[in-house]
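Summary for the funding panel

The consortium committed to producing paired sequence-structure records for every protein in the target list. Below we show the first two records in order, beginning with the earlier of the two.
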Amino acid sequence: MAPEFATNEEIVRQARRRLNQEAWDYLTGASESETSMRRNRAGFDRLAFLPRTLVDVSNVDTSTTLMGHKLNAPVILAPMGTLQTLDREGGAASTKAAAEFGTLHVVSSVTQPSLEDISAATDAPKIFQLYIRGDWSWVEEMLGRINAAGYKGLCITVDTAVQSRRERVMMNRLARGGGSDRNPLYPATVTWDLLDKIKETAGLPLMVKGIATAADASLAVEHGVDVVWVSNHGGRQLDHNRGTMDMLPEIVGVVGGRAEVIMDGGVQRGGDVAKALALGAKAVAIGKLQGWGLGADGAAGVQRVLEILSEELFVAMSLLGVTSVDQLTPGYVCPADIMTTPHEMSSWVNMPGDRLL
């Protein structure tokens, strides 16, 4: 019988017990000094809540919509490569968990099994994330497969022009994700013009993941992007980037409601979700937490991660005095001192952030 996890800390600890060092470091680490990753957590920790009392919160609804799809909570599964190193079902397990919980899985183009097999794992809507790894003929072929497999949207990740130096992984001599057929020329040549061509050819709602400045958010809207995805790749690409919560307000401001805005990076608590929504995000995406859930107990582990986040969000909303996610505004948060040293697990008080947990 699968363990009944009470907290996401328990899930992380179970994942550590089950995963080998190479898989653990690939999942848990980031690039170079891992400063961007720590800034992601610091962005949440620098905000305190401003609760309102004597509000009837007997009926609190955590649901929302994204790209026209209902989510039981404003949390989606981010695209993650090589999920098969965490669980033998790989991306199919995450898709099953998303379907059972009631949210979207954005399926990575560098995970197994095939995009067709992952799509066939459930009838629930899902989005496909495409890394550009070939010429236009290759792109057209991939777009045809994505449409034929029934994906409801397309995500292009734009912060991977070159592969970063992820030193935890490098020291294990583990192959650095992306597959042996990755040609470094193609990611480095992706431009807004190519994005326009992809959007027109695909005919699908488009997410652009990796927007880190107001200037690029403005361009994204001008190019007809449906979802602006605020991300620094979980700290796994450009080191010494800003934390995504620090990017979020200015990006929300320049988008001005012309596209939906989502974010990722350091989300570990339902309270984190509430803070992101208060600053204007429509939803958040989880990467590391998804991977820890998968490593702990496959699809059931990911589903439990989502359930716990939803439970924590419900508590936060109830105690803040809001009954629906659209009531969360900047008036419910304020600047505050950081009380713990930010690291990849610092929202759990018993986690030292040590690779040898």
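The next record, for a separate protein in the list, is shown here:
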Amino acid sequence: MKKTKKIFLCFTAIIALLITGCGNANNVESEKTQMDLSNETVYTANKENVKLLGRTYFDEDILYCALSGTGVEFRFTGTRCSITVKGDSGSADEGAKDNHARIGIYLNGDRIIDDMINESEKIYEVFNREEPEEAVVSVVKLSESPMSTLGIKEIKCVGSPIEPTENKDMLIEFVGDSITCGYGIDDPDKDHHFVTATEDVTKAYAYLTAKALDADYSMVSFSGYGIISGYTDNGKKVTAQTVPQFYTKLGYSWGQNGSFSPQNTEWDFSGRKPDLVVVNLGTNDDSYTQNDAEKQAEYSEKYTEFLKLIREKNPDARILCILGVMGDRLYPFVEKAVEDFTQQTGDGKISSFKLTPQSARDGYSADWHPSVKTHEKTAEKVAEEIKRLMN
């Protein structure tokens, strides 16, 4: 009698599972049936509709992107998707073609569009299908802010409502220079010079480090910039090209995009805060400080001041200071800045990490910048150090 009862209960459970499974399948089919595939819906790129990548600014229904890696990501199920992008004041200027913004658009992780914003407005068709499909769409600004900005004007989709993708467990902010930006990484000729067409932040160590750790990222980086001086080839200090003065902003750019000017736009630190801030600054300072002990001491002192600003804006973040890929002469002064910061503030959530200088056997990119291989090696080492620090 007990055995018969058990068999009956198992049989009942199986039937219930089958019915539930059929019900789920029917629900999916029902969603497809209820999905309006005859009308196109227009969305703005606000935080309710998309996940914001990096430091972006939403104003008058346009999402502005300046810094490397900024953009959006969203998911939906449907048959069609297109994105309208607004160029800045230099986008239609043929004379500025080497400085146009470079954009990458991804469908389910694959880059399907790689283009330069050389018009005041461009419409990109992401996909157009006969049958609905699930899609994750990402829009990423591949080039840096000083040369150009862009605006995401609207997203048009046929299918279910778009929604932001989920946040990763960790957010890392990378503060740096051309190395972080991916300067010239698509040009393996060290004798060539900078153009935005060969700059790609997604191939640089910072982006690769975040990817390896399955973390979200935010970049604050400018080619040629430093702590006390930008790059110089005549020994004169270039104070206009320093990162600390723009750390609290949306960036810096020569181009105007409507009313948006990144250097005149404050970044709102009240939102999601990074768990870790990685600072890689000193390569350009070294062109100014050289072996001058007084200048090197100034670099270290100002570095400590900058660390205090980072801590003020990110009270709970771990801070990691790295240097060395394009020369490690200033690394001892990075260590001193970290030590002085800890002594002056009592803050122990900070450390330094020396990077391995690039090697000729791994090749170079434009203007002697790190190659793809060097960036990959650097990302691997930085990711391992972050794992150690963050448990």
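Regarding this second record: The first strand starts at residue 41 and ends at 43. Residues 1-33 have pLDDT under 50 and may be disordered.
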